[in-house]
Q: What sequence folds into this?
């Protein structure tokens, strides 16, 4: 696969390394900072072009990987819709729901795949949990929480765009804890009600929140809390804690660190103690999940993914070619491919149509994906400590994520 990267900042390096590991080629790149773009091009043997349009139209690009801030997403998708190239965008999908919807509609109408990087869906730990929960191993779910007590330095926030509503879409929730919100929604399901307190700029000089504490009720009746911050020095590994009537599971960083379930049977739980986390360093994140092109797999994996072998994939690939579809498998249908399955897909699908691949046992189907945390109304400061209170009721939108339907302070 030949990838065109737009935005050659910090995260694009992780993408390029992951692509290299799975045998993809970064052929073209651009950045509005020409020097950075050219440096990146030289490092990874790509051609530097001046504009994102050129990346999206380039004949040597099979799919586009957008690594810019979330205020720049729709424009490349519109060009990709014309050129029929699939596109992956970094998280969060956008700074606002309206643009996210436009992005999805544009991709849908054009029949291209739009993926959002949600790499933690590809950790062995969360894949195990998704299957175990679906199989009822934890019993009925009663509580599911995320704790993201991270720290980011003043230097991290020194660029005025960091933590801004306009460029980043908010602070600790949408930028850092977005992964845990995503994993909770994936594993537990939609949220029906939510109540939260937040503090705007509690520690940092930013306009959005660096501390948030929310309680929620999921549609399935379970309750939960989300605690997210970038103000908690020195920063601790993030945790997701899930409790069912039969026992408990804890994800710490990228690993399953506790699996305490009564009368359990089935695939052994991959419990580990060594974790990787971006708790105090945004780039101290594991590479492996990026090698499982998360973006193309992120949507709605509530059904346990299946591991597909060569024969099945070849069949699907042929069927797909015959029907000239842009999907492997049916919509809503996810497959995990083993190495040979992946090889089969590569062999059977004409170049330029396959959009995801992985070399360690998880390649998936192709689906539209969207995820966004809403930007609530700005909270008025209600107390001297600088805390703002925010009460909102959310309803779950049919695509994915929330719609803010009412907010009061
Ligand atoms: N999934 C993860 O774990 C993870 C980790 C870090 C960052 N991210 C996300 O990745 C995205 C980028 O973050 P980053 O830390 O790499 O930021 P960054 O500022 O280091 O890089 C962004 C790059 O995009 C370039 N750019 C901006 N607008 C452009 C345009 N119109 N055309 C071409 N280039 C343009 C900038 O010049 C910059 O070099 C953000 O959405 C962030 O949330 C995700």
A:
């Amino acid at each position: 696969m030949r990838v065109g990267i737009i935005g050659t900042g910090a995260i694009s390096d992780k993408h390029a390394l992951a692509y290299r590991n799975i045998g993809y080629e970064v052929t073209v790149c651009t950045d509005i900072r020409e020097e950075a773009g050219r440096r990146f091009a030289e490092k990874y043997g790509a051609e530097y072009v001046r504009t994102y349009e050129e990346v999206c139209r380039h004949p040597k690009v099979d799919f586009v990987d957008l690594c810019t801030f979330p205020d720049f997403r729709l424009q490349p998708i519109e060009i990709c819709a014309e050129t029929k190239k699939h596109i992956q965008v970094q998280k969060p999908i956008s700074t606002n729901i309206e643009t996210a919807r436009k992005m999805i509609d544009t991709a849908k109408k054009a029949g291209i795949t739009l993926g959002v990087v949600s790499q933690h869906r590809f950790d062995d730990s969360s894949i195990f949990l998704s299957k175990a929960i679906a199989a009822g191993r934890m019993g009925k779910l009663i509580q599911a929480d995320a704790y993201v007590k991270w720290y980011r330095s003043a230097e991290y926030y020194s660029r005025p765009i960091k933590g801004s509503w306009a460029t980043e879409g908010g602070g600790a929730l949408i930028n850092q804890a977005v992964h845990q919100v995503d994993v909770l929604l994936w594993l537990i399901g939609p949220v029906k009600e939510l109540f939260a307190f937040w503090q705007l700029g509690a520690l940092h000089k930013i306009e959005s929140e660096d501390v948030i504490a929310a309680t929620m009720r999921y549609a399935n009746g379970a309750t939960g809390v989300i605690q997210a911050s970038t103000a908690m020095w020195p920063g601790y590994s993030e945790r997701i804690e899930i409790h069912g009537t039969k026992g408990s599971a804890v994800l710490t960083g990228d690993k399953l660190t506790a699996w305490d379930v009564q009368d359990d049977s089935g695939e052994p739980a991959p419990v580990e103690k060594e974790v990787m986390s971006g708790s105090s360093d945004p780039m101290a994140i594991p590479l492996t999940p990026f090698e499982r092109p998360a973006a193309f797999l992120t949507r709605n994996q509530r059904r346990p993914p299946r591991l597909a072998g060569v024969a099945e994939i070849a069949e699907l690939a042929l069927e797909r070619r015959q029907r000239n579809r842009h999907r492997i498998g049916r919509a809503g249908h996810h497959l995990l491919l083993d190495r040979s399955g992946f090889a089969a897909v590569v062999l059977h699908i004409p170049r330029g149509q396959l959009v995801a691949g992985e070399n360690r046992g998880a390649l998936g189907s192709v689906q539209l994906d969207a995820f966004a945390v809403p930007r609530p109304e700005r909270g008025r400061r209600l107390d001297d400590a600088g805390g703002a209170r925010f009460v909102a009721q959310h309803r779950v939108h049919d695509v994915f994520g929330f719609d803010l339907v009412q907010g009061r302070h």
